[in-house]
Amino acid sequence: VQLQASGGGLVQAGGSLRLACIASGRNYAMGWFRQVPGKEREIVATATISGADIYYASSVKGRFTISRDNAKNTVYLQMNRLKPEDTAVYYCAARSYYGGNSYYQTEGFYNYWGQGTQVTVLQ
User: Fold this and answer.
1) Is 15 in a helix, a strand, or coil?
2) Across the strands, what pairs with 10?
3) How many angstroms separate the CA atoms of 5 and 11, rounded?
4) Each residue of 40-56: pLDDT tens digit?
5) Residue pair 90/117 in contact by the 8 Å Cβ criterion
6) Which residue in 113, 73, 71, 108 sits closest to 92, CA to CA?
7) Proportion of the chain in helix, strand, coil states, percent, rounded to 5
8) Given CB 3.0 to 4.6 Å as the disulfide criterion, which of 3, 30, 33, 84 pairs with 75?
9) pLDDT at residue 45, as a whole number
10) 6-43 CB burial, b ≥16 within 10 A, e <16
11) Could you tell me if 112 and 94 are in contact, meaning their C-beta atoms sit under 8 angstroms apart?
């Protein structure tokens, strides 16, 4: 499975961006993680294929929305009310096979990763 992420960019605080990640094949779970230089990668939001299991980091809950279009093997991340602390490289991740719903919010659950897209939020 190959993942192609897009939609990053530069935005003022309070603004919005929508990230998209297209997978080359069907997958069980997809999600978004982010990383700031010098820090560990952290989860942003993840969702299993059914959409019944969705996880948000507490820092983005209520501002970000993850959604999936399974027919297009695509996951989106709508980011509203962006803050400077949301600045990071955002990575798309996918798990290509069934994995239950106990660990889908953890980085190790995913076996494919995209190239990352930069999101910069200005003061």
Assistant:
1) coil
2) 120
3) 18
4) 999 999 999 888 899 99
5) yes
6) 113
7) 5, 50, 45
8) 30
9) 97
10) ebbeebeeeeebebbbbbeeebbbbbbbbeeeeeebeb
11) yes
Count CB neighbours of 82 within 10 A. Answer: 22
Long-range contacts of 74-77 (CB under 8 A, 24+ apart): 74/20, 74/21, 74/22, 74/23, 75/20, 75/21, 75/23, 75/30, 75/31, 75/32, 75/47, 76/18, 76/19, 76/20, 76/21, 77/7, 77/18, 77/19, 77/20, 77/32, 77/44, 77/45
Q: Residue 72's CB: how many other CB atoms inside 10 A?
A: 10
Contact status, residue 21 vs residue 71, Cβ threshold 8 Å: no
Give me the torsion for CA of 30, 98, 43, 93, rounded to 10°: -40
The identity of residue 68, as a single letter, is R
User: And the tokens for 31?
Assistant: 């999600």
Contact 81, 60 (CB under 8 A): no
CB 92 within 8 A of CB 32: yes
